[in-house]
Write a structure and sequence with these properties.
By secondary structure, the chain is mainly β. The protein is built from 2 helices and 11 strands. It folds into 3 domains: 63 residues, Single Sheet (Histone H3 K4-specific methyltransferase SET7/9 N-terminal domain); 28 residues, no CATH class; 59 residues, no CATH class. It has a 6-stranded antiparallel sheet, with no helix packed on it. A 5-stranded antiparallel sheet has the order 10-9-8-7-11, covered by helices on one side. β8 and β9 form a beta hairpin. The longest helix is centred in the last third of the chain and has 10 residues.
Length: 172
Amino acid sequence: MEYTGSQYIGEYVDGRMEGEAEYLLPTETKYVGEMKDGMFHGQGTLYFPNGSRYDAIWEKGLAVKGTYTFSDGLQYDAEHWHYCDGHDRRFYTEICYGLKPAGISQVTNMDPPRKIPEGYYDCGDGFYDPVTRIIKDYRNRFLRNADDDEHEWIIKTCRKGWDEIVGHRPKL
């Protein structure tokens, strides 16, 4: 733990993490559940800093069956996924609470939408700087460097923090 920045709260058997436990990763993702031989094993939940969670059955560190729930309560279902599938383009909050009056658009699931710093993109889990290719979470902590594929996807699909009409666009 000393080298990884992780924290473990739980029992040990023969020097290995085992039993009911909490495991906090340096990214502030937290696992709560069963451990065996130093790995996630049995029922356990990963809680992510953005408020989402993954409830799963684990075998030797790998999830074999699970359910992902977004922070707003929307559950991902691989077989029956109907959210933003082309037939129904409403945001989940619009499905739950109804549409806004005519002429008032909702541009994200979060209403009002998060303010994006000028020159950045909102890529869903943080802000992306296309010049440095760094993604930082919404609290300005480093998440990752974007590879070429992610960079192109963000540039093509994500909300920008500037008005293209005015022309304030970062140089790429």
